[in-house]
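Go through this chain for my students:
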Amino acid sequence: MESTISLLSEKHFLCSLCEEIFSNPVTTPCGHSFCKACLRVYWSRSGSDECPLCRKAFGSRPHISVNRILADVTENYRKTRLAAKSKFFSMDELQDEPKNAGELQKMVQERVQKIEKLQNSLKLLKSTCLREVQESQRVFSSLLSTLEKSHKLVVTAVEQKQKEAEKRVERLVKDLEKEILELDNGHTNPEHLDDKERLKKSFSDIPRAMRDWSKVTLENDPCVGFTRQAVVDFMDTVTMEARRLSKAELKRLQKYSVDVNLNPRTAHAYLYISEDRKEVRHVNKRQEVPENPKRFDRVANVISKEAFSHGKHLWEVEVGDKTDWDLGVAKQSVNRKGKFTICPANGFWMLSLKNGTQYIGNTSPPTFFSLSHKPKRLSIYLDFEEGRVSFYCLDTGTHIYTFKDTFTDKLHPIFSPGRPHGEKNTAPLIISSSCCSI
């Protein structure tokens, strides 16, 4: 048989789908042969039951089983081929030969399973996208309904004010007309009246107290602030809805929690790193540390051992009652020596607290804002592909701030506990080993 095999070219033993030597070959009713796994993958991808080579369609997917004769011939060819090559290559070189049939089959199966996982992931993605659209529809429909109600309330209140003004003016005009009539009656000539009428006139001429009309005015702008207050009330509703969505969002992000550890070799000499690499404090005294090109020498920063170049990541930091701190991410390639500005252009995306109340997004120029609740625990979320670094208050579950940019370099979580101010701000920043539930 070996002499017969040697007369055949290699193409007779290759699967036309993977272009490798047959592994568990099967033959279709039309006479063409393929690897069993390759044919299954082809039918799964194409969604049709036809021959990949001649495109002949089968009424239904045929039952296929391994062609034992072709399998034996293929195996003998593989052995003959290896024996021939052994004349020219050492045994060490033969280790680089193609894998055996079992290993190839395993590799094929792994790829088939990967296809199934990707398809299942796509189904889940479509489901979550649909859920997001439905949630968006519900939220915005509710907000639009609230907005319409607020507008109607403003219109009703304005109309009520107008009606009240109209009624008041109507009453005042009647009073004025009555007084005008009374005043006009006082000019009647007494000579033309008889004794009885003259007597009545003498009593009626007694002047009665007239209204002081100089003090009577009509407010011509009674609706000041109606629309503004309606907008403020609506914004409160939007804020409450945003907080609810933020809390739900943060819960969904918990699955991206990662373990973050500080890298002492990068820490400024004034920073003390705990043995478990989870805490950093400013000791206000230079420590004896070895020189390292990765160490910050002017700015009291330290970065994590972990670097992220793709994917989504979430970590938690406890800031407690500290009055100063800086948190965020930094490029692996940032300058760590000398003086520089902390900003995205220099590879830093950080949120800072200064003087206990002033929160700053380190943009250029800086973004200043205040928070109604002072966070004691923060979650930092990095989405590398989307170019987002977001900060959340874990105490309330609310979103604080988001940087939007394009990331190309590896990113490290970065920390600065701030300088002590007497007995203040001496507490450490603490990295949680696992994110807590909201």
About this structure: Confidence is low (pLDDT under 50) at residues 1-7, 88-96. The domain at 1-86 is CATH 3.30.40.10 (Herpes Virus-1).
